[in-house]
């Protein structure tokens, strides 16, 4: 038995030396992509030696075991990374004799000198567990250790030979069928994306004492083992990796690194955008001459701070001090109708303070009126009661300020326009109806 374990020790090293491509880059599935992205089925063939003894020890009916050939095949379905179901088929011959004397010089079985059992067929279903993976930091490992356990049925025919050389069949012209439990271990090497090298050792515990054709000490159960070298072929699309070699932690690490790089790029782009926005705001707020009009819109720069200016930053006409008394401004009914038309035509984008272009003509006429007669204007923004109070107050203020900004852009004096927001606090109709809420959403103009 020593040479068998020597074979299992040496062959993995030889197999590893011949498989440098096992660590080459290969397709790797996503961690949570499902089993459809992998190859999960494989078939294999193997050959090795059968022995009427197992590594766990225990006595058999004959004193010395012999080594003979064996062969097998299997079909495997890899369910999870660490778990697969494998159907094994095996045949061959198992031999032993009584050439070894016991300590007291007696033979445990004087009736027969040797036996030979032909294992005509056997089939078992096994659960295979991947318990360790060499080179596991790569997306696909180079080698892995596994354990297996299952149950099956064997058909065999024992023949016994007496010391005089007479051979007898245990069951003439027939086959014995008994249940057995296979328990095995092995190491597997990935030779390529298609083929794997399999080195394994399996112990078979037979549910009976007929395997060697003799029942020496009932109810002792017979047992035998099988050491093999095999080749496994993965089935399916070659572009897909084998599930049994897939290393989820390594793939997850690569995904996290890729996501980190992508997030860094997005963050850098956002920082650049924020910097441009800050520069634009700073430019918009710049007012070199302090007249209340941004340099971006100031058509008359360097205006003295004591001068009153219009919306374009240009000084307003100064009153004639030679004429005594203040100039009286008369607001006509046409003036009031012009303001009412502007109110009626004023429209904003839904839920925003953006003025719709359809409102520009009537607002232009109001701006012209304010400039011609140097009138003052009070803007009061109102909303309905839909939404929270703070949001409504902010929206009403923003809309009033938006109207002021537009009038100023058309040349109106910003110092003569007051913009105030009242939110939902001053309704002019019931908020319980759609028509009432429509009336409450308004901006009021008051000229004086």
UniProtKB/TrEMBL annotation:
Major subcellular site: membrane
CDD domains, A to Z: OmpA_C-like (cd07185)
Localization in the cell: Cell outer membrane
Start and end residues of each stretch annotated as Disordered: 304-325
Domain of life assignment: Bacteria
Any coiled-coil regions, as ranges: 253-287
Protein keywords: Cell outer membrane, Coiled coil, Ion transport, Membrane, Porin, Signal, Transmembrane, Transmembrane beta strand, Transport
Signal peptide: 1-22
Mode of membrane association: Multi-pass membrane protein
Keyword flag Ubl conjugation: no
Gene3D superfamilies recorded: OmpA-like domain
One Pfam assignment: OmpA
Domain OmpA-like, chain residue ranges per copy: 335-448
Protein name: OmpA-like domain-containing protein
Organism of origin: Chitinophaga alhagiae
